[in-house]
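Supplementary material to the annual report.
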Amino acid sequence: MVDVGGKEVNEREAVAYGEVKCGRAYLDAVKEGSVKKGHVVEVARLAGMMGAKETGRLVPLCHVLPLDCVEVTIEILDDRFSITAKAKACAKTGVEMEAMTAVMIAGLTIYDMGKAIDREMVIGEVKLLEKRGGKSGEYLREDK
Amino acid sequence: MVDVGGKEVNEREAVAYGEVKCGRAYLDAVKEGSVKKGHVVEVARLAGMMGAKETGRLVPLCHVLPLDCVEVTIEILDDRFSITAKAKACAKTGVEMEAMTAVMIAGLTIYDMGKAIDREMVIGEVKLLEKRGGKSGEYLREDK
Amino acid sequence: MVDVGGKEVNEREAVAYGEVKCGRAYLDAVKEGSVKKGHVVEVARLAGMMGAKETGRLVPLCHVLPLDCVEVTIEILDDRFSITAKAKACAKTGVEMEAMTAVMIAGLTIYDMGKAIDREMVIGEVKLLEKRGGKSGEYLREDK
Amino acid sequence: MVDVGGKEVNEREAVAYGEVKCGRAYLDAVKEGSVKKGHVVEVARLAGMMGAKETGRLVPLCHVLPLDCVEVTIEILDDRFSITAKAKACAKTGVEMEAMTAVMIAGLTIYDMGKAIDREMVIGEVKLLEKRGGKSGEYLREDK
Amino acid sequence: MVDVGGKEVNEREAVAYGEVKCGRAYLDAVKEGSVKKGHVVEVARLAGMMGAKETGRLVPLCHVLPLDCVEVTIEILDDRFSITAKAKACAKTGVEMEAMTAVMIAGLTIYDMGKAIDREMVIGEVKLLEKRGGKSGEYLREDK
Amino acid sequence: MVDVGGKEVNEREAVAYGEVKCGRAYLDAVKEGSVKKGHVVEVARLAGMMGAKETGRLVPLCHVLPLDCVEVTIEILDDRFSITAKAKACAKTGVEMEAMTAVMIAGLTIYDMGKAIDREMVIGEVKLLEKRGGKSGEYLREDK
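Predicted assembly:
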């Protein structure tokens, strides 16, 4: 665990992205609301948000940060779900891992709720899109 | 949460896969053991294994299963880390989510430990490779 | 913690009930889907279900039980939300506490999501309705 | 999760109340110290306090707050236990949910420890009594 | 995590021991019930029991076991607290770690509640006393 | 839970120590890297660090503190492992318990990974070595 004792508290923000690639059967079922396990988008969104709060306990070297906000947005595209998560905190270190974890747990939840329909799903493209705050300043991914 | 009350307990096994694509700088640092945050492969392996035990609490509709074994293997390839996780349990439902979660948390940990070196990393190709046990029988992914 | 080592494993089921009494403003907002914090019924249902899985860690003398199923149903009545939770497990001891905890956490979530609209809400009538399995046999509350 | 990033940190306090209605048998057993499962009031008090620390993980849209203090007081009345919980924090958002959760988990624990004696218990009247700090200022429930 | 998939489920029991060495001031305060933080023995007993349920999450390579019983006994001796914990489960692997963890968390709690009175306390002699069940059979420590 | 609402936030640091006494067989196996369960020192170090983050949830009356840093150092001596843990936070109360918990969980992990080789191990001498910050000022143990 990096010692952040000497670092300043300032506003941190991070946006992460990921996707769940899958067949039409599952995507259609979600759109029609016919997935037996429930409202996939709503459940995954919530799981992602709750997952972000667990980041510091799941990722060994992460500090536990006091999140000001986590937002998870899920879109249904033609051949995949896209997941975007934003995390914010006033902290001594960045919230990238919180945003990444939110995306991951949302992705896992989408997978779990649809695996009876489509076992071939692939979770991927999980990456950091943006980051603000802290000494290293702003970061904007170029190949978004 | 699907009611598994009427299902039989039998041996379940699942293997999941995923990868962290990254540049040479981080891979070389890991091979040389020069990453400041510690032994990346060992920490990620452990985080994946511990993460698998949290599956039922992270993924809302998952049952909490009594895992008999979780194994996480991480390889350093030319342009990525490959992560394979196997989960086993005697249970009424499958352990795919446990294997998937192990891969995910291992991937997040690799990302976390190297993000000071390489911010462009992408976690992806997270998918189920194999599954055994239960009424649906054996599954072997074809496009491994 | 009562020693259940000598007890038989058998099918257990419990149904608990509770309600959140509140004004029309919040109930109407929920029906119209205009609550800023999201889909109250869906979020509370999920929180209840996930909360049930934490029972053994929250209630000191409870055993941790392998839940086969948790179902939470929330209805919007004229002056209150009614919450019903069913828990099932094959276990050496009953699942009353899991059903009760599900109701409680669902109730807390309903409260949390509406407290900006209505601070006067009261969570109450949390009680066991039914119980099956185990040496003490079936229980059906009379004053449901 | 409401974005509290722009809000000021200030002292927050909340008091919640609840009760467990039950028959004389259990109340007498508690007073005599003859409940097999242990010291009901002490265990429930502790469970409530520890439960308050879990609030942000149990209630999906709650922020995790750095509690300065949680106090749980339990009284044995003629036909019920009364539970009062006070929570305090220096935070950007209120601690109502922490106080409410403390009451709830204390109530569940009282129920759990006595359910072998009295299955008819009802947990109820869980509500916010007081709240201080934050933009909305002081709140004092009138129908205490 | 050792693969216990092929092992038989049978009754397991383990007893662990530990102590907190301290000065008279704290021991006397506990006996008189004058410790500000509360009933030390009762709180520590409970913390130990609850801690045992967390073993599989705290100790990386431990399996999560379905505990049938945890008992923690604390005695006040002339110059120390002695802590004994017994854990039981029907499982494929032993419950030594659960008993050891119970002792440890009880010890930490005793330390925490008295550290304002006595900073010199030492927690020690934490060891396994007995173990039953499983292929390796019975174990009884000789130098108890 | 002591009310720390009125206390100042300042830099806190604590160092705790502990050891696992054991036979040569286990120590040698660790040095040779032949312990089946993995890299004992690395796993224990990580478990201690992660355990420190759980302190506020394990020790009932502890506040949950925002740790700036946890460092666990493990040395292999002739007849024992020595464990030193340092914790740091900017907080209203000290981090002794975090340092102590880190030592304890590291000790439990060392025990767990070697118990198939040596059942006689004893975890002991767990104590506070140093403490800085807060009204009570600096503390340095004399009989280190």
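Chain A has one domain: 10-138.
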